[in-house]
Amino acid sequence: MGLINAFTSSPQKQQLQEPPPASAGFPLVRGRKKRALLVGISYAGTKYELRGSVNDVKCMSYMLRERFGFPASCILTQEDRDPGLVPTRANLLRALRWLVEGTSSGDSLVFYFSGHGVQKLYMHGHKVEGCEEELWPVDFDDDSRGGVILDDEINATIVQPLRRGVKLHAIVDTGHSGTILELPYLCRLSRTGGNWQWENLQSRLSAGKTAMSTSGGLAISISSCGGDSQTSQDLFLGSAYTSAMTYSLIKAVESEPGTTYGRLLTAMRATIRDSGREFGGMGPIGTFFRRVITFSRAQQEPQLSASHTFDIYKKPFLL
């Protein structure tokens, strides 16, 4: 059975505090082979407001039900009515711990984030020595840039604890989140697909940092990287917004069930490059999208990183 825990945002700021035990206030999922944490932050009422993040969560939930067998009865969608589920820094860290708590071989986990993300470059003269990435919870401090969630925190919380036989997919839809999980390997894929190779990312990390892998499990990240933007790129069609990367991911899955990682990334990039065209050939999910989103031009480049290398044109994309 599958369980989805979906967050949407509240404009209210809350006092930062150390997260309580991960299981407190969260569903009991021991024995279930699938669980997912979906986070969509709109930053409503602030200058950083996003219009598509909440719809992104709805679309991802729909895809998981329709294409990956998550029963509707096991989908839990929480908005900002429950203070324990508002995506503050404390609550997000607690939810990330919940995601990996008590897992065993054969479990499949999904972490999805749509919101703001920032990449910081560390320079020595004119040379880039490394970079650090962060996600912005709803209560991050605009003045001090405090209260963010750093890439090494995410790695320590959901990557390093992964046991052998456990699989994690992190789908991070922000303007810059290419190495947000600090996984050791980045897949370099040619613009038209076909040619690819894995790059060891250690040289791109900040001085003194190490790309920490799992405890035997498999971690895979699909994230966005593009320009100087800090945000996920919104698309609009009719009555609501969604983001470019999330749309392109769902379109690729719907257009080719059982697709491989290589074909998935190639299709996603083609969709984003061709944004503005009428979308079709998406079956039932296409009907759903036509009800909730619109499509306009946005530039993001989906990236694939992983804890272990594999043949991206042979390994199927399965959540």
TrEMBL record:
This is Peptidase C14 caspase domain-containing protein. GO terms for molecular function: cysteine-type endopeptidase activity. It holds the Pfam family Peptidase_C14. It comes from Sorghum bicolor. Residues 1-26 are annotated as: Disordered. InterPro entries: Caspase-like_dom_sf, Metacaspase, Pept_C14_caspase. Residues 1-17 have a biased composition (Polar residues). GO terms for biological process: proteolysis. PANTHER family: METACASPASE-4 (PTHR48104), OS03G0389000 PROTEIN (PTHR48104:SF42). SUPFAM superfamilies: Caspase-like. Belongs to the peptidase C14B family. Residues 33-309 form the Peptidase C14 caspase domain.
